[in-house]
Amino acid sequence: MKHFNIAVIAGDGIGPEVIAEGKKVFSGIAEMDGGFSVSFEDFPWGCEYYLKTGEMMPTDGLDILKPFDAIYLGAVGYPGVPDHVSLGGLLLQIRRGFDEYINLRPVRLLKGAPCPLANVLPDDINMIVVRENSEGEYANVGAHLYPGTEREMALQTGVFSRHGCERVIRYAYELARLEKRSLTSISKGNALRYSMVFWDEIFAEIGREYPDVETHSLLVDAASMFFVKDPGRFEIVVTSNLFGDILTDLGAAIAGGMGLAAGANLNPERKYPSMFEPIHGSAPDIAGQETANPLASIWSISQMLEFLHEQEWAERILSAIETLLVERRTLTPDLGGSAKTSEIGAAILEILER
Ligand SMILES: NC(=O)c1ccc[n+]([C@@H]2O[C@H](COP(=O)([O-])OP(=O)(O)OC[C@H]3O[C@@H](n4cnc5c(N)ncnc54)[C@H](O)[C@@H]3O)[C@@H](O)[C@H]2O)c1
């Protein structure tokens, strides 16, 4: 029997609350399927751990995580620890250390999910954003010089290597070809005349190998406008680390809210474990209240199962989420319901069992 060994970093704030529901769903599915089993190992890393030890995770954290089939992450960050410390000390370490250079973020309006846009139907919002996840503006290259003097300055450098751009752009072309959908590259070549012009050139260059893929190129400012005015024009989207981060929050806002947005950090070669997480943060404003929506975390389990070659379960989880949204019986307050976070996993399993 196949066995999946999953490392769990529930993290801070609402992280543990939402992750508990995803674990319930995965365990329940393993029982229903009978053809595979799953075990979870929990790691107490995050801001509390930092306050005790001075580190977000142990120095050998990556060695500890490496043997697992996948990593399931809640959220990191909490008042009391600077955000650049919490993000840089854990999430970015894992993404970079495990060469998870693809961040796949579906922006899909499920039936029954709220949408703030007028006259939009679920079919109108259905895209996959392929975000570069290892370099770009988040490459951790820069300096803070002459602090406390009148010459003080900060430099933050974006890193766009040929290797880094080519591999993410090629991945997006392959996905577009496989799914027979158009591909839109989002950049900013008019203002960022080195990095983004380079990106645009590579996008055009690789495109010559994919004459069957319909392509579009947009500047990020225009793309943001179209996300709101005409989201139906986007099918597969490829973009840089920073732009992808921002655009997918906008994507979450038009497709059901932060409680419904999932993301997969993939190392496509499977040399290292990939990491699956809701894209929202630790939401300190609602932590501990049992009101957080765990559907994004459960959607991340769907992404994880897809990556673990359990495609059918991946799809069934998504349609169970959709049924939950349409039936409106067990929803958290952000979706207009009064259910507790801890009731959602069981509700999804009940739908899957029907
Ligand atoms: N991947 C990550 O771990 C990640 C991502 C973003 C932010 N953060 C960190 O999280 C902390 C809070 O950041 P923020 O407030 O900017 O973003 P956030 O995503 O935590 O919250 C933004 C808003 O969305 C709401 N929200 C988020 N997730 C929700 C859910 N599942 N159900 C219902 N409502 C939800 C919150 O209540 C809040 O009002 C910071 O420390 C930040 O650095 C972590």
UniProtKB/TrEMBL annotation:
Positions of the Isopropylmalate dehydrogenase-like domain: 5-348
Sorted UniProt keywords: Manganese, Metal-binding, NAD, Oxidoreductase
Superkingdom of the source species: Bacteria
EC number: 1.1.1.83
The family this protein is said to belong to: Belongs to the isocitrate and isopropylmalate dehydrogenases family.
Reactions mediated catalytically: (R)-malate + NAD(+) = pyruvate + CO2 + NADH
NCBIfam families noted in UniProt: PRK03437.1, TTC
Cofactor(s) this protein cannot do without: Mg(2+); Mn(2+)
Protein name: D-malate dehydrogenase (decarboxylating)
Residue ranges of coiled coil: none
InterPro entries assigned: ICDH/IPMDH, IsoCit/isopropylmalate_DH_CS, IsoPropMal-DH-like_dom, TTC_DH
Organism classification: Bacteria, Bacillati, Bacillota, Negativicutes, Selenomonadales
